[in-house]
Amino acid sequence: MQNEDVRALFDGLRVTDVRDGMDWVGLHTKGSISGDIGPLFQGAKAVGIARTIRLRPSQKVVPPGITPDEYTGWAYDYWYGEVVSMRMTETLQGGDFIVIESAGLDVGEVGSNNSLEWYASGAVGVLTSGGVRDRDECVLQGVPIFGKFRAQKMLQGRVELDSTDVPVNIGGVLVRPGDVIVADGDGAICVPIEHAEDVAKYARQESENDKAGRRRLYEKLGWPLDDTVR
Question: Which end of the chain has the lower number of beta carbons within 10 A, N or C?
């Protein structure tokens, strides 16, 4: 299946619907990413295909005695050019969801610049088990970002790239390249690609049942119908 075909299966489904779909096909203990990883802002939501990045703590150190001007070159040319390059823009496809296994340090592995670069190259969202910096700009830009904590620090001298497009651990869940990520105000869930069609089928069933039930209550209350019950 192409990215757009897989994403279409989950169009309009909530994380809770997908959780129900996972239960219906017997995946009760799989998929739900730890609840301490959540949306950066109210209303953030996305459905996409996982493109993974694994980061690790670095033992490399800043060269002793370098000047601030030399530090600029060291940081941008060496560290971000060689040690922790996460560009991926040349290989991103529309509908990809960037998924980052954090190095586990108090740094902002996602920020306003790299998240917007990925988004401009076709990514639909970013999911990280680590920190997010530049949060005000990230909220303003509106890229759907799901992370664990706020951060201030950059990566140079602290974090390096381990690998890309490999299985990663995000909030206690195995996420493989090509798996489906659904994320909204209830957090994020990973659907193994081999179960996508069945999960989506029963997630859709439960979504429609929920809408029908709440629509009757809206009508009883005299409320105008909104998109969540249509």
Answer: C
